[in-house]
Every structure is written in structure tokens, then in C-alpha cells.
TrEMBL record:
Membrane-spanning residues: 267-285
Keywords in alphabetical order: Coiled coil, Membrane, Signal, Transmembrane, Transmembrane helix
Coiled coil: 44-71
Name of the protein in its database record: EOG090X0856
Domain of life per record: Eukaryota
Organism of provenance: Moina brachiata
Family matches, as InterPro entries: Thioredoxin-like_sf (IPR036249), Thioredoxin_domain (IPR013766)
Signal peptide range: 1-19
Location of the Thioredoxin domain: 128-219
CDD domains registered for this protein in UniProt: PDI_a_family
Amino acid sequence: MTCQTILFVILAFLSIVNANLEQVTDEELEKLIGNEKFVIALFRSETCSECDELEAQLSSIREDLVDSLNAWVVKAVASQLKTNFTATNNPAKPLVVYFRHGIPMLYDGPLNDEVMIDTFVQNQESGVTHLNDDSFEHLTQAASGATTGDWFVMFYRDDCDPCLKFLAKWEYIATQLKGRINLAKVNIMADGISTGSRFFVEQVPTYLFFRQGKVYQYSLDNYETQAFKDFALGWYKNAPSKSVPVPKTPFDELVDRSVFVLKENPLILPVAGGALLLILIVTLIKSLKGTKPEKTTKAKKNTKKAD
Ligand SMILES: *[C@@H]1O[C@H](CO)[C@@H](O)[C@H](O)[C@H]1NC(C)=O
């Protein structure tokens, strides 16, 4: 063998090795997600030809991604984490998830080198705005229908598993509507309680599209990226519309939050009632036992107040 052939064999060997991505355990992956700016993870099963193809594709653009983003490109085989990023559980189907400062985006586009690289490079920040009771009206101008453009908002709750699993796809849909439609999310069991009540959101997830003072509900039974995209870009016209309710006053918000707490914790009323009764009884006993006249008057006053 000449020197050239040896070199050729070595190079060929290296390129085969390079066709595979570095494999990480779930624990390692969680560390990467938590510590690294950009992580691109392929979730795959052990043997599946679609996975092999996707892995070969990612391997071929790995160097570009390292150059342009300094990204980690890894694979996780038969990972428990995979179900975090998809609401449709198909164990065989490989997923590509792009983490930007820990925020996942499920890549749902064509398997094309250029499109993939572009999508990753052009979406280095989350494309979904987190709105809450304080910021919603200010940022969307939903009621006035003014200048901030159209908004497509997902209402969800922390205890809704399918909602949380859909957020990675919502991020991808945001990349597809970037520059045309603003995408947002509102957590109606945390800082968006009053906003949820303003739009009568009772079930989650609920998707509302706000445009020029009108609100349209996405109520199709289709959770594909394309369906959301089509809806926001024109299909909403076929959906029934309502005028956007006026923003809530701070007093309304307080009421909404109290009602929410009571609804979520049906035991509060009896417990609070019980506590109040106990306080009354204790006060009463104290006032009866009271030796010094001064204290008695005080206790009596308290009892009157509590009444
Ligand atoms: C996966 O989901 C679980 C349950 O919702 C959560 O505790 C965990 O932090 C998630 N892991 C990642 C890496 O997103």
C-alpha cells in the first residue's frame, strides 16, 4: 500500500466515524441543556432507518452548526426525555429538538441541510413571548386593535401535560410566522389568571388569534404546524369572531385571583371558616376568664369587631 492509499483509508474511516453523533445519557443531556447556550439533540430509537437517515443528515451539518452557533449536536437513544417535547407519542419517530438557553424548539421542517441550518441560526432566541396580566394589554393592544400587529396566543396551565409538551412545537410555529404574526403564551394558573378569565378560557390548551380588535378561536382538531400557520395567515376568517373584551381593572384582577384560589382549593372556605370559629372561641374563653377589668374590655371589643 502506498502512502496515499493509507491516507485514503484513514480519511474514509474518519468520515464513517463522523457520520455518527456523540451519544449522551439523559443525565448528561439535562446537564447540557441547563449549562450550554445551544444544544441540538436527536432523540432516536436503537434501530430505525428513518433515525439513521436523520442522524446522517445532522452529522453532515454538525460542523456548520459548531462553527456558526458553537452548538452541541448530540443524540439520545431511547431517552425518557423525548416525550417532554411532543404531544403525539410515537416511540419510533425520531425528533430533533433545538435548545436555546434551555428553551426547546421542536424542529418540524423539511429534512434539508440549508433549511435546517437557517432555522437554527435565525432562531437563537425563543420566538414565543410570555404574556401575563400586567403585560398582555400593553404588548398586544388587543382591545384597541392598534399597532402591535396580530397575536396568536396559547393559553395553558402548568398541570396540563399535553400543553407543556406542545410548547416546543409552538416555538417552531413561531419561527414559521416570524415577522408576520406574534406568538405568545399565557399561563392561566400563574401570572395570567385574570387574562384567562377575561377571555373566558376554561379548557387548556386554548389558542386565540387576535387581530384588529377581534378575537378568533382556533378550534380545529388539527395540531400540525401547517394548520396553525394556515389559520393565522387567513383561515381565521372562517372562524367565528368576537370583539375583544375590555381589559380588566386592578380590582377585577384581584377578584379573579381570589375566585381562582377558591376554585382551585375548595377546602379553603371550610378551613378558613374553622380557623375563624376557633379564634372566636378562644377570644370568648379569654374574655370570660379575664381577671383584670381592663383586659376584659379589650377582649370584648375584639369580639365585637370579629362579629
Ligand atoms: C421533562 O418533564 C418533566 C415533567 O414535566 C420535568 O420535570 C423535567 O424537567 C423535563 N425535563 C426537561 C429536560 O425538559
